[in-house]
Inverse folding.
């Protein structure tokens, strides 16, 4: 029997179906873009505070985010799509900001979705190593209960796709629930909060404008203060704002998720400090000194005490804080303006869930 011609009526029908499907996807993306244009910013409790400019959320894109790195290592080399490897790749491997050697927790091998692989002593989570067909997620190996918890996640791959998120969640979050669905997993229910690379903050299925976008090389810091009950996010070691309050007496896990093929995130810092008088004093010192200066380098302290504080509370003394005496009353919605992890200090700078 002779071979059917690929230019026949059957093949024309197949190609027309493919074209209709592509057009439908384009219309759906355009509709989604319009839906993402709404704002859910809360008004300030004080009438004397100026209104903050609204941030325009970015739509998830197949093109990786660039220009948001913590350092300049990734600037000269733009990510390129490799069809053979089915993903975006860069030859460079940046290690800037990865000074810590001791970690309070790493990623949990037993609490991850099926499309997640671990490396670098379980500190690096690799998502969708071949191709992506849904959302992959993982949580930390330690439950965060009492005390002060601070960790940093570095984006070690191009950041793109439906969503790549950093956040927290309880043990009730099902990490493998959306393995065949592209979605923003963290913040889809009341048991989790998630900051998207698009700058949107998710919780209970809702989203609000929270920050600018982040991409490959960006360092996202998270501070869970169980004493004040606050969740604070940092970008490239500058405070973004308080994302949630009234989190006392709750137990969370650090979590990340991704829908992008061949994407990865790495824990470069995970610290714990009890809420002691020593911690509260260091937090206050950090607020009183300029955020661009290392606190320990300007204080006339004995070498032994400096070494002790660096080992125990170095993370608190190095992150930015703008809750200090100021002669200016102006406000800004920029990520480069730091803020303290205290809820009262950040209450009027950025909206948050309570």
């Amino acid at each position: 029997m002779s071979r059917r011609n690929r230019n026949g009526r059957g093949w024309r029908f197949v190609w027309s179906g493919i074209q209709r499907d592509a057009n439908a996807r384009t219309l759906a993306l355009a509709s989604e873009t319009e839906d993402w244009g709404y704002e859910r910013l809360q008004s300030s409790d004080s009438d004397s505070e100026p209104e903050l400019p609204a941030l325009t959320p970015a739509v998830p894109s197949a093109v990786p985010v660039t220009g948001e790195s913590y350092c300049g290592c990734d600037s000269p080399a733009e990510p390129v799509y490799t069809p053979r490897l089915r993903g975006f790749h860069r030859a460079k491997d940046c290690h800037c900001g990865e000074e810590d050697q001791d970690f309070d927790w790493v990623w949990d091998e037993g609490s991850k979705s099926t499309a997640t692989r671990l490396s670098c002593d379980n500190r690096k989570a690799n998502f969708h190593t071949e191709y992506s067909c849904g959302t992959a997620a993982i949580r930390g190996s330690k439950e965060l209960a009492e005390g002060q918890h601070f960790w940093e996640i570095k984006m070690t791959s191009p950041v793109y796709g439906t969503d790549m998120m950093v956040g927290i969640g309880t043990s009730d979050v099902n990490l493998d629930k959306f393995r065949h669905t592209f979605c923003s997993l963290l913040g889809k229910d009341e048991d989790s909060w998630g900051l998207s690379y698009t700058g949107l903050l998710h919780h209970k299925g809702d989203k609000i404008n929270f920050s600018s976008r982040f991409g490959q090389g960006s360092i996202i810091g998270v501070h869970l203060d169980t004493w004040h009950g606050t969740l604070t996010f940092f970008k490239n070691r500058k405070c973004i704002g308080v994302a949630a309050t009234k989190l006392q007496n709750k137990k969370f896990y650090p979590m990340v998720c991704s829908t992008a093929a061949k994407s990865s995130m790495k824990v470069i810092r995970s610290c714990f400090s009890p809420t002691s008088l020593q911690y509260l004093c260091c937090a206050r010192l950090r607020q009183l000194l300029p955020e661009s200066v290392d606190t320990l380098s300007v204080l006339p302290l004995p070498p032994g005490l400096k070494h002790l504080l660096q080992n125990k509370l170095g993370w608190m003394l190095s992150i930015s804080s703008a809750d200090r005496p100021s002669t200016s009353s102006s406000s800004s919605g920029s990520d480069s303006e730091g803020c303290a992890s205290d809820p009262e200090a950040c209450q009027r700078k950025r909206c948050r869930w309570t």
Observations:
- The chain has a mean pLDDT of 78.
- The first strand starts at residue 80 and ends at 82.
- The helical segments are 9-35, 277-288, 295-298, 303-318, 343-346.
- The chain has five helices and 16 strands.
